[in-house]
Write a structure and sequence with these properties.
28% helix; globular; FAD/NAD(P)-binding domain; 8-stranded mixed sheet; Guanine Nucleotide Dissociation Inhibitor, domain 1; alpha/beta; 21 strands
Length: 550
């Protein structure tokens, strides 16, 4: 669209759009975010942006340090790679993390005694075949035994306690809404809606229990254990919305549920999401022969609990605020990684036999010197933005019909609602922290990432509060603090054609002794995928370590 034809939102229109409310629904009438505390946060890519614009770091001040392996990136993928290396006796490595805090989107925060997630906040109970993740959870005390056929027995303290979820539904008749247990935004579904729900559930179970000619599940977590046969690849060529149309699914409640699933896991609408990914969301979490999907494991700090466990034995090997600026091959066939210390403003170099690149592909093409010569095309890798707010409440909002749950979804709006970070504690009254999620799903030419990043804390506090007021009219008076995290490139987007288009598969291949490990290589941003990619990249190093020396 030509610049002259674009209609830009006014600031108030933009805030209303982000909150998913009419302009008249924006919080106001005397309320001011200045009455509460809060911070505006985001991962620090400033040095990366300076590199993009031509800046070059100072020369190294000392000789390179020597390591067996350099791991670039301290999210779940990088930490999992380190975990796997240590399990096989390799501990001569260093983890270079861009940010001040380890963990990536799985990191957690704290308000006094309250822990909370900054993004990723749960993991479904792993299937018996996901043996490495079960090993990790056993090590953490999450898995406490095995049932028949290897099904892991999970500690009751880690399983999400009841009540699990509810959805808030507006009532156009009287202007009021109500909470309903479950995730179906229809308190009295029609016979046609019930029939479509039953048929949809049957189809998802058939996908879940189906096997290909090699005996692999059609859809599995991690996806490396699933099928790549044409019957599943064909789903990637259409969107989830197109697939729903082809199956005759038009019940509004079902369409909303599927769209919610796509926004929840992928930050995309059903129209934007590959049908493969849409089916994967429902079918990959279903164990053979069961009548419902796997239970959920969670903690007050979300997947930060996993980060804490993985990182606790790696403190000496983790180096934060290290902005990798270049990875190159020396004349002696060693890999030289150059990193700029954001806090020290000094450049340091690291020599290694292998590099595990546990960062997104959009950084790989800027940082890895041999990348251009490899003729890899990563232009189809697209990443979605998210805004996550942690809201400290002095007390619980008044509830008229159902109790606050772990997952509290607000239908009809742009956000996903919130999770209650104190839910696992068993204390259902008094102060709490709720974690609010808003994926930036809209392909709207009137809104740019730069515009969103320029919004102030006051702006985001108004957006968050306006959305919460739809479901909790008394919540504004209970808010003591709002901390807002802006994730500009939070997660890979499995748009139509990306999963089996070829670029993802090529990007996953090692580039000499540079091995790639991040969830974007799977096309779905799940903890299990990052863990799988990280441990399998470590396997490449382990195999080289064990191969006969010539």
């Amino acid at each position: 669209m030509p610049e002259s034809e674009r209609h830009f939102y006014s600031r108030r229109e933009l805030l209303a759009w982000l909150a998913g409310v009419p302009i008249a629904g924006l919080v106001g009438c005397g309320w001011s975010p200045r009455q509460i505390d809060g911070r505006l946060l985001n991962p620090d890519f400033s040095v990366i942006h300076r590199l993009r614009d031509g800046w070059r770091p100072p020369e190294p001040t000392r000789n390179p340090s020597r390591h067996r392996v350099v791991i670039v990136g301290g999210g779940i993928a990088g930490l999992s790679a380190a975990w796997q290396l240590k399990r096989h006796g390799i501990d001569d490595f260093v983890i270079l993390e861009l940010d001040k805090t380890i963990g990536g989107t799985a990191r957690s925060g704290r308000f006094g005694d309250f822990r909370f997630p900054w993004a990723a906040h749960y993991v479904p109970v792993p299937m018996p075949e996901n043996d490495r993740l079960i090993d990790l959870f056993r090590e953490m005390g999450v898995v406490v035994g095995s049932a028949e056929e290897g099904e892991p027995i999970v500690s009751e303290t880690a399983l999400c306690r009841d009540p699990h979820e509810r959805v808030f539904v507006d009532n156009p008749a009287d202007g009021n809404g109500r909470w309903i247990y479950g995730l179906l935004p229809d308190p009295i579904p029609s016979a046609e809606t019930r029939q479509q729900l039953a048929r949809f559930q049957t189809q998802m179970r058939d996908f879940a229990f189906g096997k290909d000619r090699q005996g692999r599940r059609l859809f599995a977590i991690p996806m490396s254990q699933g099928s790549d046969d044409e019957q599943v690849r064909a789903l990637d060529r259409i969107s989830m919305a197109e697939w729903m149309n082809s199956q005759g699914y038009n019940a509004p409640a079902l369409r909303w549920l599927v769209d919610y699933g796509c926004r929840d896991d992928y930050g995309l609408t059903a129209e934007q999401t590959s049908a493969w990914a849409g089916v994967f969301y429902f079918a990959s979490r279903w164990r053979q022969g069961e009548t419902e999907t796997q239970a959920v494991i969670t903690w007050p700090e979300g997947n930060g609990h996993i980060v804490d466990h993985l990182a606790k034995s790696l403190q000496a090997q983790i180096k934060c605020e290290q902005v990798v600026t270049k990875i190159e091959l020396t004349s002696r066939q060693e890999l030289l990684t150059t990193a700029f210390g954001a806090s020290t403003e000094q450049t340091q170099q690291f020599l290694a036999d292998d590099v595990i690149f546990a960062a997104p592909q959009f950084l790989a093409r800027r940082l890895i010197a041999p990348f251009e010569q490899s003729q890899r095309d990563v232009s189809s890798f697209r990443y979605g933005g998210w805004v996550v707010a942690n809201v400290l409440l002095s007390d619980r909002p008044r509830e008229s019909n159902v109790a606050m749950c772990w997952d509290n979804v607000i239908s009809g709006g742009a956000s996903l609602g919130y999770v209650t970070s104190t839910h696992q504690s068993g204390i259902d009254h008094g102060p709490t922290v709720i974690t609010w999620y808003r994926p930036l799903t809209d392909d709207d030419p009137r809104v740019s990432r730069q515009e969103l990043m320029r919004l102030t804390w006051d702006d985001w506090a108004q957006v968050v509060t306006s959305d919460l007021l739809r479901a909790h009219p008394d919540i504004a008076a209970l808010i003591e603090r709002i901390d807002v995290m802006r994730w500009g490139h939070a997660m890979i987007q499995p748009r139509t054609g990306f999963i089996w288009g070829g670029a993802r598969q090529q990007a996953a291949q090692s580039l000499g002794r540079i091995h790639f490990a991040a969830s974007d290589l799977s096309g779905v941003a799940l903890m299990e995928e990052a863990f799988d990619r990280g441990t399998r990249a470590a396997d490449q190093v382990i195999r080289r370590d064990r191969s006969p020396k010539v």
